[in-house]
Amino acid sequence: MPQSENILEPRGRKPTDTGFSLLELLVVVVIIAILAGAAILSLGTLGSDREVQREAERLRSLIDLLTEEAIMESHDYGILFSESAYRFYIYDYQTLTWQPRAGDRLLAEHELTAPLQLRLSLDDREVKLSRDFQAMDVNEQPEPQVVLFATGEVTPFQAAFYREMTGGRFLLDVDFDGSNELTQDGFDAP
Question: Under CATH, to which class is 49-188 assigned?
């Protein structure tokens, strides 16, 4: 009696020849690596523009708040910028100096998360900012670049929040009357 053939086995193959070759496995691994890399880049693991926008929105909100508070309390507020942070000060008319507002966590120094950076322009001229506040002389009195006056007027300025690696950039333009506009690379931000 002839031995019956297994219908599921292809002819000419031995039962031990089942499985994938090394070349087939390498091709699959390369395809998976390419897809994973594309997914990581599309998700923005280097940081999304939302983080840059959030930082610009934070400063915008604080300026709106302080502009109103300056008028109501008859105080002048100042903002001192570095490439990676900003600080708020209040002008003390008794000592004629800018002082940090003690005990106010909202107006404490705010450091941007790396690799976010900041640029400041006054009268369409870029201001050279120090790398960070530790580079400042401890004995030197702070001189804020931007002042929010008790009259409701503000030093007009443009702050650019950006991430060097991805090129995402948000611009906060503040006018003399305190009105402001947030744009992304020349287009209105949502």
Answer: alpha beta
